[in-house]
Design a protein that fits this description.
The protein is about 20% helix and about 40% strand. It is α+β, with helices and mostly antiparallel strands and about 140 residues long. It has 2 domains: about 30 residues; about 80 residues, Immunoglobulin-like (Sandwich). The chain is elongated, with a radius of gyration of 33 Å. It starts with about 30 loop residues before the first helix and ends with a strand. Keywords: Membrane, Transmembrane, Transmembrane helix. This is DUF4307 domain-containing protein.
Length: about 140
């Protein structure tokens, strides 16, 4: 069966009969599939954000370095304060870095707040492998 000019819409290309096969109908849109995929993506991203916040974003354990002193070739003393839930305790990771930024010491320290208090102050001596330039608190988390 060949097409005649009566069945061709104006402006449509005219192809030789039988050369290119039959023409396809325009594809159906699937809005339900698109909505389902979008919902799955949002749920996955929400779950990942919740998981990462639980792991790395607990604002109740906030640390502040007050000072670092007694810097020698083999040590630095770090004074710091940690905000914890009232009467709670935290495990903090302390580190010392040399002038070129290399890590020369790292330790975990557990500090506890006095009963009814929400801040715990601590002083800790870090033994270093080289002369430190700075002592710092990397992060704090609930004590194990």
């Amino acid at each position: 069966m060949t097409e005649t000019h009566a069945t061709i819409t104006p402006g449509a290309p005219v192809f030789p009969p039988g050369r290119y096969g039959r023409r396809r109908e325009p594809g159906r849109r699937r809005p339900a599939l698109v909505a389902l995929l979008a919902t799955a993506l949002v749920a996955t991203l929400g779950l990942a954000a919740f998981s990462m916040y639980g792991k790395y974003g607990d604002p109740t354990y906030d640390a502040q370095v007050i000072t670092y002193t007694d810097i020698t070739d083999s040590q630095v003393v770090v004074d710091f304060r940690v905000t914890v839930p009232a009467g709670g305790s935290a495990t903090c990771v302390l580190r010392a870095r040399s002038h070129d930024g290399a890590e020369v010491a790292r330790e975990e320290v557990t500090v506890a707040a006095p009963p009814g208090e929400s801040q715990a102050a601590a002083r800790h001596r870090l033994a270093t492998t080289a002369r430190p330039f700075i002592g710092e608190v990397v992060r704090c988390r609930p004590a194990d």
